[in-house]
Amino acid sequence: GVKEALSKGADYAVASLGKENGFLGNSKVKIGLPSYLQTAEKGMRMVGMGKQADELIATMNHAAEQAVAEAKPILSDSIKKMTL
Questions:
Q1: How high is the mean pLDDT of the chain?
Q2: What is the C-alpha separation between 64 and 47, in angstroms, rounded?
Q3: What is the enclosing helix (H) or strand (E) of 81?
Q4: Residue 33 belongs to what H/E stretch?
Q5: Model confidence at 40, in pLDDT bands (50, 70, 90)?
Q6: Under 8 Å between Cβ of 45 and 53
Q7: How far apart are the first and last CA of the chain?
Q8: Cα dihedral sign, 59-31-68-13
Q9: What's the Cα-to-Cα distance from 6 to each of 40, 60, 67, 79, rounded to whole Å?
Q10: Do the Cβ atoms of 8 and 1 come closer than 8 Å?
C-alpha cells in the first residue's frame, strides 16, 4: 500500500511538474534566484535589464521541468526497491 501511494504520488508530481510551465506556472514550486543573486537581480531590473533577469529565471525553471521528466525512471526504480 505504501509503495503504491508513493508511486502514484511520484507519477502525479512528474506529470504536473514535468510539463511546460510546471515549475514556472506554480508559485508553490517556482524556482527563484538564490539569495546571493537577488541583489544583482534587483540591480538588473533597475537598469532596464528585467527581461534578461526574467529569462534567467524562466530558463532555470524550464530546466527543472526537463530534469523531473528525466528523473521519473530513477524515482520509480527507487520506490520499487524500497523495503519497509
A1: 94
A2: 28
A3: helix 50-81
A4: none
A5: very high
A6: yes
A7: 11
A8: negative
A9: 39, 27, 19, 7
A10: no
Share of the chain above pLDDT 70, in %: 100
The string of DSSP codes covering 2-23 is HHHHHHHHHHHHHHHHSSTTTT
Nearest of 33, 32, 17 to residue 68 by alpha carbon: 17
* Contact assessment for residue 76 and residue 7, using Cβ atoms and an 8 Å cutoff: yes
How far is 48 from 71, CA to CA, in rounded Å? 37
Longest distance between any two alpha carbons in the chain, whole Å: 55
HSE of 69, CA atoms in CB hemisphere, 13 A: 13
- For residue 59, which amino acid is it? T
Contact 12, 76 (CB under 8 A): no
Question: Whose grid coordinates read 529565471?
Answer: 57
